[in-house]
UniProtKB/TrEMBL annotation:
Pfam families: Complex1_51K (PF01512), Fer4_15 (PF13459), NADH_4Fe-4S (PF10589), SLBB (PF10531). The keyword Nucleotide-binding does not apply. PANTHER family: NADH DEHYDROGENASE [UBIQUINONE] FLAVOPROTEIN 1, MITOCHONDRIAL, NADH-UBIQUINONE OXIDOREDUCTASE FLAVOPROTEIN 1 NDUFV1. Belongs to the complex I 51 kDa subunit family. Residues 180-205, 500-525 are annotated as: Disordered. Its cofactor is [4Fe-4S] cluster; FMN. Residues 513-525 have a biased composition (Gly residues). This is NADH-quinone oxidoreductase subunit NuoF family protein. The keyword Electron transport does not apply. SMART domains: NADH_4Fe-4S. InterPro entries: ComplexI_51kDa_subunit, Nuo51_FMN-bd, Nuo51_FMN-bd_sf, Nuop51_4Fe4S-bd, Nuop51_4Fe4S-bd_sf, Soluble_ligand-bd. Residues 325-369 form the NADH-ubiquinone oxidoreductase 51kDa subunit iron-sulphur binding domain.
């Protein structure tokens, strides 16, 4: 049943629109319409801009939630200390399948985000602007916006602006990945922790924040802090952009003031009246139950107090008819395949955790559950980027949120429900790195001798079971792992491994991958 979200889903608003002003008039606000809707924007000195960000409690809306004013000051201080012009970067790279808010803003209101970024560039004295994008439609919209403003990367321009295209992968949206891509490298974390405010694009101090953050800054600069604070909560004023998907009748992006009840937003999208659980913050976020979803309001503090997370603004309910652990396993396998492959906790730990969850669902009992918990503890805090920790957070939240279902799978024969695949994942037919290739692994068990070389070459997809024979954490081969998958096939001493084209699943059913040799069939090719 998995249906990937469109680039620009339906957009709704609760109350008066700020970021989405003008969306009821046109599909895309060009520069002329943008100025008619929002009006002109006056430059602002650096400290005054930082004070504005402090007064409206502006935090990064990409997931980390770092205070924007502090980030702005850090870049300014590093630039002055080093005598180097800083760089401003809009992170519009959304590689997470459940997020579309930044894509919506860049596709429909690109000049609002550009306003905020150019305001910061003027305040900092920056002469370079970079916009990171993931999708074709977004790149086309930003290029058109550059042309409407006369921005380009030509020498001699007072400010050189360029677009960096990143693949649709979870790790390519991380700040360090985008900076690495802007520097001419792959869109992957560099494997070491560096502060962008000190060393970023071209080695210069870099102010990097996501699309919504810069758009919010542009709105606040026009309205002023006092008027901006008339919307939303006192401690978290303004609006928030959310992406609602999962078990909803109408997937959508919605702009909502902070303080609005979460249950109202879920009702707008046609979510189940009593959801089995609601995943908050996206695939690096946390599950909350129906009672918490009823009590929560849209705010960072409220969701955190109930065990949830605002994160990147993705909200995903699931209904009572699907297996929540099976839904989580689909996401876990995708997260494992999204590894940058640059550290052991990510390259080895996440596939092992996904395989451990599969073992639990396939009748592994208490031993499988304890092994899964041990893996998550071993991965936490040891990764070279944020992907391992975010993924482990999802694993741990799944185990803590669905204890009754977990007990049914560990102690009995399972919960008795199919996995319907309501949580969105990338669909087949895409050619971008990190998405499915339409190929899958198959093992001929009459030939396999358990040498284990395949698990060493592509541990994201193959691991060794307790008996020393391979089990497939996820038989599907993503595009970015095709090379290593083919190498694993070539190096199999017993010629037992092969790659074949995937066959479509029957509607309404999602098989649970990773169940060892029994889950793969009779064993004959």
């Amino acid at each position: 049943m998995n249906v990937p979200l469109p680039d620009v889903p339906e957009v709704r608003v609760v109350g008066l629109p700020q970021l989405t002003a003008g969306f009821d008039l046109v599909e895309r606000l060009d520069l002329g319409m943008h100025l008619k809707v929002h009006g002109p924007l006056e430059p602002m000195a650096g400290e005054r801009l930082a004070e504005l960000a402090d007064r409206i409690a502006l935090r990064g809306r990409g997931g980390a939630g770092f205070p924007f004013g502090r980030k702005l000051r850090a870049v300014a201080q590093a630039s002055i200390r080093r005598g180097v012009r800083p760089v401003v970067v809009i992170n519009g790279s959304e590689g997470e399948p459940a997020c579309r808010k930044d894509t919506v803003l860049l596709n429909r209101a690109p000049h609002l985000a550009l306003d905020g970024a150019l305001l910061a560039a003027e305040a900092l004295g920056a002469r370079t602007l970079v916009v990171g994008v993931t999708r074709n439609s977004t790149e086309a919209s930003v290029r058109a916006a550059f042309a409407e403003r006369g921005l380009s990367d030509r020498r001699g321009q007072p400010l050189r602006a360029r677009i960096v295209r990143t693949p649709e992968r979870m790790v390519s949206g991380e700040a360090s990945s985008l900076i690495r891509a802007a520097n001419g490298g792959p869109a992957l974390p560099p494997g070491r922790r560096e502060r962008a405010s000190e060393t970023g694009v071209g080695g210069a101090p870099t102010l990097l924040s996501n699309t919504e953050t810069f758009a919010q800054l542009a709105v606040a600069a026009r309205t002023g802090a006092r008027r901006y604070a008339h919307t939303g909560l006192v401690d978290e004023p303004g609006t928030v952009m959310l992406t609602l998907s999962g078990a909803v009748a109408r997937p959508m992006v919605v702009e909502v003031p902070t303080g609005v009840p979460l249950r109202y937003v879920l009702q707008m999208a046609g979510a189940p009246p009593l959801p089995q659980g609601v995943l908050t913050g996206g695939y690096h976020g946390d599950w909350i139950d129906a009672a918490a979803a009823h009590d929560a309001v849209i705010s960072r503090e409220s969701l955190a107090s109930l065990g949830g997370a605002l994160g990147a603004g993705a909200i995903l309910p699931i209904g009572p008819e699907t297996c929540p652990l099976g839904e989580s396993l689909r996401v876990a396998n995708w997260l494992a395949a999204e590894t940058a492959g640059q550290c052991g906790p990510c390259r080895l730990g996440l596939p092992a955790a996904a395989g451990g969850l599969a073992d639990v669902l396939n009748g592994g009992g208490q031993a499988a559950l304890e092994a899964l918990r041990e893996v998550t503890r071993a991965v936490k805090g040891r990764g070279a980027c944020k992907h391992p920790d975010g993924s482990v957070r999802f694993f741990v939240s799944t185990l803590n949120a669905f204890t009754d279902d977990l007990a049914a799978h560990v102690l009995g024969g399972g919960c008795g429900r199919e996995t319907l695949g309501v949580l969105p994942l990338p669909g087949p037919g895409h050619e971008e790195e990190g998405l499915p290739s339409g190929e899958r692994f198959a093992v001929d068990w009459t030939l396999c001798k358990g040498h284990g070389l395949c698990a060493d070459i592509v541990p994201e997809l193959i691991r060794l079971g307790p008996d020393g024979y391979p089990t497939l954490a996820d038989a599907s081969v993503p595009v970015h792992l095709q090379g290593r998958a083919q190498r694993a096939v070539r190096r199999c001493p017993a010629l037992a491994l092969r790659i074949e084209r995937e066959t479509p699943e029957r509607p309404g059913r999602t098989a649970l991958p990773g169940g060892g040799r029994k889950a793969l069939g009779s064993g004959r090719g």
